[in-house]
């Protein structure tokens, strides 16, 4: 399994970015997938994710609700994170992740994911 995150950049507060995670070696319906972020000096935190059931239901961190939207295109084997109304506190390296065995109750726990992309930097200026 390989994950390649892209789409980060520098944006002003209030702006938008769309992150992409190109996946290979997996089938979306068999893997739980998520976006996490890590700011300097802070622990990696959950942003949004899909359970491995393959359904459209997604989970979001409270800070992401109403501003971020996770989606996936099975035909392209790509997962997306649309981020709107960005704030300076959203500045972090964003990582995509996947795991075949993680259960729904552990979806928000980074320690449960076996596969990680390299991360893409998002910087939001005030």
Write a brief structural summary.
By secondary structure, the protein is mainly β.
What does this structure look like?
- Helix content is 0%, strand content 48%.
- The model has no long low-confidence stretch (mean pLDDT 94).
- The protein is an all-beta fold and 126 residues long.
- β7 (68-73) and β8 (78-83) form a beta hairpin.
- The radius of gyration is 13 Å and the shape is globular.
- It has no helices and 11 strands.
- Strands 2, 4, 5, 6, 9, 10 and 11 form a 7-stranded mixed sheet that branches. A 4-stranded antiparallel sheet has the order 1-3-8-7, with no helix packed on it.
Give the assembly state of these chains.
single chain
Total number of strands: 11
Kindly provide the radius of gyration, computed on alpha-carbon positions and rounded to a whole number of angstroms: 13 Å
How many separate helices?
0
Distance between the amino and carboxyl termini = 37 Å
Element string (H = helix, E = strand): EEEEEEEEEEE
